[in-house]
Amino acid sequence: MAAYDWFFDLVGLREWCDAEKTQGAMSMAELMAKANGAAAETAWWDVPFPSLDTLNKSCGAVSRTRDFTVSIENAFLGVKDSLKAVLDPLTQPLSWMLDGALSLFVSTPWWLLIGVLLMITYYASRNVLVTIFVAFSFFLLAFIDHYTYAVQTLSIIFVCTIISVLLGVPIGIAMSKSNTFQRFTIPILDMLQTLPSFVYLIPLIFLFSVTESKLYGIAIIMYAIVPVVRLTDLGIRLVDKDVIEAANAFGMSSRQKLFGVEIPLALPNIMAGINQTIMMALAMVVIASLVSAPGLGTLVLRGIRNLELGVGLVSGFAIVLLAVVLDRVSKASLARINTAHSH
Amino acid sequence: MKIKHLKKSIGTIALLAAFSGNSHAADCGEVSITEMDWDSGRVVTAVAKFLMEQGHGCAVTVVPSASVPALASLAETGKPDILTEIWTNGAPAYPAMVESGKIEPLTEVLSDGGVEAWWVPTYLVEKHPELATLDGILANPELVGSRFHNCPVGWTCQVINTNIAKAAFGESGIEDFIHGSGETLAASIGAAFESEEPWFGYYWAPTSILGKYPMTMVDIGPSVPEIHECNSMEDCATPKVGAYPKSVVTTVVSDTFSAGNPEVTDMMRNLQFTNTQMGELLAWKEDNNASADETAVKFFTDYQDVWPNWLGDDAKEKLSALIK
Amino acid sequence: MAIDSNQQQSGQQVKSVNAKVVIRDLFKIFGDDPKMGLEQVRNGVDKSDLLEHHGQVLGLRDINVDIGEGQITVIMGLSGSGKSTLIRHLNRLIEPTAGEILVDGVDVMTYSKKQLRELRQTQMSMVFQKFALLPHRTVLQNAGTAMRVRGEDEELINVEAYKWLERVGLKGVENQYPHQLSGGMQQRVGIARALTSNAPIMLMDEAFSALDPLIRTDMQNLLLELQQDLHKTIVFITHDLDESLKIADHLVILKDGHIVQQGEPQDILLNPKDPYIEDFVGDINRARVLRARSIMTPLNGSVPAEAQGQVDHDDTLESIIARSGGDIAHAYVVVKDGVPVGTLDMTVLLKSLVPRISSDNGVRNY
After folding, report:
1. ipTM for the whole predicted complex goes beyond 0.85
2. CB within 8 Å: B16 and A34
C-alpha cells in the first residue's frame, strides 16, 4: 500500500527488498487513516517525495534517515578515542589559561583589581572620560552584588579574546596572501558563525569532560574569532596598491613589507576586527554558561529557568554594561595606536 | 475502474470531511496542550493529542514548554488549557497555586510518581559493590571520580542536591559540579558510559537516559518530609541528608476548560502511565530512534488493554477501528 | 661596454655612451595564455585582433632600447601605449613574456628573488605618479626608506635623508606626514626618497603628470639641475611631448606596445619616420624647441664673411629669430665652445619652422 511499491516492483527489486525487513515504525498518519477506516489512499498530487523513509515503507532494504544519522553517530564514537588523543593535549593550555585567569581575577581583592583595571584603562586610552565611565560601571556592578560574576565573565572574555587575536590575525594574514586559502577558509568562517554551538559542543563533551573549562573556551573562541580573521584579511587586501608597489620597487622583503607597510596600514580594519571579536565573545556568554562557564551567564540562566524576571534582566544588562565598557576602552586605545590616521 | 476510483475518492473525502468538521463534533473546539521538552512528556502529549483529535474531534495546538513557565502562564492568562507532566517537586510555586484555586490538578499522569535519586553506573557497582551506598562513596571518592554531577542552576533539584552535598560531602573532597544545562548533564552520562568511566550524580525516571544506560540507585537513606522541605530552600539553615520523596507528577487543567469540556477532561483524568509502561515505551523509543508520534502509535497498537478504558462511549466508537 | 648606440642623422658628433640598461626583444602579453598569445604576435597578429580572437592583451611588442648611462631617456606615448608596462619591466615589477633585460651586462631575468631585491635596493630607485609615500611615516622616514630597507644605521639614514630633503627644497617639513603636504611637495619627497637610495638608475613613472603646470615646470627644472650634478641614469615616462622634448637626451616613442621611433629629440622632430609621429609633433612650438645645431649647415672650409653674428649651437630658433629682428636675409655662424662649427641661414630656419604635411589618416583632421 505504500506510495512507491509500484517502482520497486517495476524495477524487479521486490525480492531483494523483502529479504531485509527493517520495517520502520508505523507513522501517525497511517494510524489516523486506520482510525478513520479509510484506506491510506493518496491522491496523485499528494504523492510524498521519495525520501529514505518513504522508500523504506515500500522496500525494507532501503535504510531510513535515522539509520543514516545513527551511522554518523557511530562513526564519531569510533574515532573518538584517537581524536581525543590528539585534541586533548593541544587544547590543554586553553584550560590552564582559563582556570588561571579565573582564579587570579576572583582571588584578587576588589580594590586592587579595580585599581589595576582603571590604570590599564587610562594607560591604554589616555581618556579621562572613558576611565571615569569604567570606574562608575564597576562600582555599580559591585554595589548590586554582581561583582564576582562580572569579574568571572571578564576574565573569560579576556583570555578568549587574546587567544582569538593571537590565532586570528595570522590566519587573516595567510588568507590575504593566498586566494585559494581564502576560498577554502571563508565557508569555514561562515559555518563557525552560524552552526549552533551545541551541535559541536555536545560531541566535544564526549571528548573532553564537561567539567573542563576548555569546553566553553572553545565555544567562545570558535564564534568570536571570525571577525578578526575576516577583517585582517580585508584590511591587508585593501592596503593601497600603489604603496605596495613602491615597497616592492625599493626591494622590501615579504617580511619587511608585512610588518613595515601592510600591517600598519591595515591596522584600522584589524582594530575593528578585534573590537567585534570582543563583542562576539560577550554575546556567547550565556551559551558558554550552558556548558558550565561561570559568570553573568549563570545568573541569566537562573533567571530564565526560575522565571525570576528581575534576575534575568539585571544580569542581562550587566552583560551589556561590560560590553559597552570593553567597546569604549578598546576603541579608545586602538585609536591611539592609529596616530597617522586620526589627524 | 475510473468510476470505482471516483466513488472511492468521494467516499474518502466524505469521511475525512465528516471527521474534520468542527461543526459536527460540537462539544470540543480548540484545545491547547503543553509539550514538555523531556521524552516522557512528549509521549504523553502525543498520546493525548491523538485521542483528543480522533476521539473527540478537537483542534489541538501543541505548546512547547516547561513546568515552571507553564504554571505561571496558566495562572496568569488561563492558557494553555491542559498542562501535561508537571513535576510538582520541581515547581515551588505549585502548592500555593493549588490552594488559591488558580489551577486544578486532574490526575497523577505518572501513577507511580517520578523517581528522583542519585545514581552510579551499574558497571561501576559491579566492580565495587560498596558504591551502592552514600557511605561507601564517601569512603572511596576516587572510585566515582571525586565529582557529583548536579542539576543545572535554576532547577529546584540543584538546590536540594547542593544542600544534601553540604551536609554529606564534608572532607571527602567530592566536587559539587553544577552543570550549565540538562543537555550537558545527560551528555556526561553518555560520555561516561562510552568510555566506562566513573560517574556519580543526580537523574530522574522515567527517562530515555535511564532506560538506555543501566544505572544503580545510591542509597542515601530514607526520605523525611521536613528534611526535604528545608533542603528545597536555598537558605536552609540546617541542610541534612534525605532522599527524594516520590515526585508527584500531575496533569493540570484550567477550570474554564474542565467546565466547558467535561468529556475531554474525563479522558485526561483517566490518562495515566505506570513507570513500567512508560519505561518500556521509552526504551523502545530509544532503541528504534523513534519520534514521540511513533512511540504513541506503538502505545496504541500494543497496549490495547489500557487506553480504551480511558475513553467515553462516543470516543470509543469513533476509534473502534483501532480497537481489536 | 661602449656601444655606439645612438645614431644621429644631423651630422652631430656621436657621443659614445655606455649602455647601462639594455632591453632586447622584449614582449609582454597579458592574459591566461601568454605563450599562445606570443606565438600569434610573432606571426603578425595585431593588438585588436589578439584581443578579439584570442582573448589576450598585447602589452609590449619587440622592444629594443639601450638606456645610456648618465642620460635621461624619455619613453613617451599616449595611454595604452605600454610605457608604464615597459618601465616596470626594468625592475621586474612586471615579468616579461619573452626577451632580455640587461643591467650592467647581466640579464636580470636570471636573478633569484634575493638578487632581485638587492637590485632594487641598491641599483634602482623609483618615483611614482601618485607619489606612493608611506602614509604612516613622517617625511624624513619616507625619504630614508631605501637605506632602511638595506638595514643601514638609523643615524646615518637620518643625516642622508635630511640632506636630500634640503636639496630638493623641503627644509622644515621633516616631521610632518605626507597627507599634510601639497602634491608638489609630496613628489619632492618622492624624489628625495629616490635620491637618498643613492642608486645609479632612477625610474620615474609619469612623476610630474599629477601636478599642475607651474609646479610641473619647477620640478622639471629641478630634475635637470640635479642631473647636472649627479649624472644618474634616468628613465622617464610621460605622455607630454613638451616635457619629453625639454628633458630627454634620448627619446623613445611608443604606440600600441611597439616603438615607432627613437632617437635624439631634435632628430625626431626634424625627421619623423611615421605619420603618427608627424601628427604627434605637429603642434609643437618648433621655434622654442629646435636648436641651432639641429638645422645648421656644417662648416666645410672657412667661415663665411657675410655673417650677421654668432649664435651658440644650443640656442633656440626663437632666440635667433628675435636676434634677427625678422630679417630673412640674415645668416649666422654657429659656435660651439667658442669654435665655429657651422652656418645658419634665416631662410633655412624659416623652412624648419613648418612641419611636414600631416597624413590623411593621421591623428589630426583639419
Report:
1. no
2. no
